[in-house]
Amino acid sequence: MEKETINKLTKTVEELAYEQDGIEYWLARELQELLGYADWRNFLNAVDKAKESCKTTGEAVSDHFVDVNKMIDLGKGGQSKIDDIMLTRYACYLIAQNGDLKKEQIAFAQSYFAIQTHKQELLEERINLMERLHAREKLAAIERYLHTAT
How far apart are CA 89 and CA 110, in angstroms? Predict the structure, then answer.
């Protein structure tokens, strides 16, 4: 895959992300297009496999795959309600892992979400280390105080 294509897809994935109450999510119909699926039915096969993977890992499917409806515009000012799914980053990762491996976009998504997941893990590890360091410094200060008070 060309570097220009990778940069374009990375930017698109990030632009498609929404945030609500501090939780990042994507809409399945938008992700479907990004991953190269023309047909919603075919994309739902990957979603269903991803849901099974989610269950297998012991995660609550409802925490990562939330069914929603949205209105789409039809010709002459009409609207229609369609099904969609709000997806967490983890759900997107699972969909990429269970997608059609012949699609170049799936290979990209697998790599993208794996890298982003790793970055998040490193960030969380760093935060935990900083919190432990802060707790140790606080404990050391208390011990010094107690030692000089006696």
Answer: 12
